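Retro notes (design track)

What went well: tokenization of the new backbones is finally stable.
What didn't: we kept losing track of which sequence belonged to which structure.
Fix going forward: every design gets posted as structure first, then sequence, in one message. First example under the new rule, 451 residues:
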């Protein structure tokens, strides 16, 4: 069954090619399609396109379908094209002509759009929660290991003293900025496209403000043409924010792989968190971090994939956009799995103490010695030259004591300020606003929606 079918059936090969993998990804949209249908039915009753009794019957049956989705007893039948057709079929099977009325004043275009917006909104929230948990671990580890020094590098050459407090804290603050970009994506996603129909509105006197309120959106996509143009753009913006988080994880993973290497020897992990070699009995391989790095690098390519897939599309709907789901939807789960695995590893990290006591790291303290001379009154360039000549003459002497006090330095990590910034960003999402709207829409079933 197809919503658009009249009397002529498509060639089987055409049908298979155009549907592709859409049905399996449509199952992810099923609960959100139900939400959009409930809001639409309630709105139709207020403008006279449904009676109150019809809207109530549709709402009740949609809530039952929603429960079936949550209990994994919902499926898309083989002869049904997509989730939208399946739900409409179930409504019609149960309610007869009332079920056939649900699609009034709506196109499958804006139906898909609102489903995707609701799905993305939920996935962003789950991702923010995962990022926040990982952030808290990084801050905890930063404080725990703030006295543990390690070499800092530029150009992969020894540079200046660093600390594990700085290292953990750097990635924590990186996640703050990543979360800011997630908030920007959320603001774009959290706008209602329903009522734009096929992209040119409807002659019915629908109330788009009402469906916006019912679904807990912050605002409308007002212009109906732009509501359709926003498909592809919204996915690309969301993908870019996922890529930002992925970039943070990828860089952290590369550091961990280096630090675990025997030539560095800064960290280790319990044997059960590493893998071995089939031939070399001494090996402890950082396979988890290597796979995080690879998964995240692939996610970093996602915005460009979506950009290329939507290049040169004119305004209006095009079937090209269907394929975006195959690329974007799995990325959320992949990224959150990477976050969870990075958390598992860093929760069990073992850090070597007194790394910088090794003679090979003595030149890390050259800047410290330059600064001491400057504090004694010597011009910086003269102090720099003196220490440089001492190094060349193998006469360099140094102290390993550090006294860094400025904001964000080894001795003043400012983790409390970083944590406050993250708290502020997370609170700005105001997820509870849409939680309350959806709970009301479902009659108290929200815990199942977001579970």
């Amino acid at each position: 069954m197809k919503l658009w079918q009249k009397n002529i059936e498509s060639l089987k090969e055409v049908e298979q090619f155009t549907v592709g993998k859409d049905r399996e990804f449509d199952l992810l949209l099923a609960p959100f399609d139900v939400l959009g249908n409930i809001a639409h039915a309630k709105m139709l009753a207020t403008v006279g396109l449904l009676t109150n009794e019809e809207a109530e019957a549709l709402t009740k049956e949609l809530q039952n379908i929603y429960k079936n989705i949550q209990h994994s007893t919902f499926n898309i039948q083989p002869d049904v094209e997509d989730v939208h057709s399946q739900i409409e079929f179930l409504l019609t099977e149960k309610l007869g002509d009332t079920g056939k009325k649900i699609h009034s004043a709506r196109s499958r275009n804006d139906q898909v759009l609102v489903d995707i917006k609701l799905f993305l909104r939920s996935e962003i929230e789950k991702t923010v929660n995962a990022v926040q948990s990982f952030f808290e671990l990084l801050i905890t580890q930063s404080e725990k290991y703030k006295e543990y020094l390690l070499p800092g590098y530029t150009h992969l050459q020894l540079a200046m003293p660093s600390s594990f407090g700085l290292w953990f804290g750097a990635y924590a603050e990186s996640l703050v900025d990543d979360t800011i970009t997630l908030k920007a994506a959320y603001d774009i996603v959290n706008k209602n496209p329903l009522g734009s129909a096929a992209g040119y509105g409807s002659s019915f006197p629908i109330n788009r403000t009402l469906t916006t309120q019912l679904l807990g959106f912050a605002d409308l996509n007002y212009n109906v043409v732009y509501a359709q143009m926003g498909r592809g753009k919204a996915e690309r913006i969301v993908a870019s924010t996922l890529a930002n988080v992925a970039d943070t994880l990828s860089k952290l993973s590369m550091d961990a792989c280096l630090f675990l290497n025997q030539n560095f020897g800064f960290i280790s992990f319990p044997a059960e968190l590493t893998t071995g070699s089939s031939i070399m009995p001494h090996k402890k391989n950082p396979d988890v971090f290597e796979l995080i790095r690879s998964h995240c690098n692939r996610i970093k390519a996602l915005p460009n994939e979506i950009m290329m897939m939507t290049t040169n599309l004119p305004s209006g709907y095009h079937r090209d956009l269907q394929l975006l789901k195959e690329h974007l939807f799995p990325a959320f789960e992949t990224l959150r799995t990477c976050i969870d695995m990075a958390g598992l590893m860093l929760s069990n990290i073992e850090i070597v103490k007194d790394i910088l006591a090794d003679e090979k790291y003595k030149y890390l303290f050259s800047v410290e010695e330059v600064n001491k001379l400057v504090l004694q009154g010597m011009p910086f360039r003269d102090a720099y030259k003196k220490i440089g000549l001492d190094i060349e003459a193998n006469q360099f002497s140094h102290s390993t004591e550090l006294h860094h006090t400025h904001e964000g330095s080894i001795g003043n990590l400012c983790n409390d300020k970083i944590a406050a910034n993250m708290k502020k960003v997370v609170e700005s999402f105001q997820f509870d606003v849409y939680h309350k709207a959806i709970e009301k829409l479902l009659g108290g079933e929200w815990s199942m929606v977001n579970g």
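Added context from the reviewer: Residues 40 and 211 are 6 Å apart (CA to CA).
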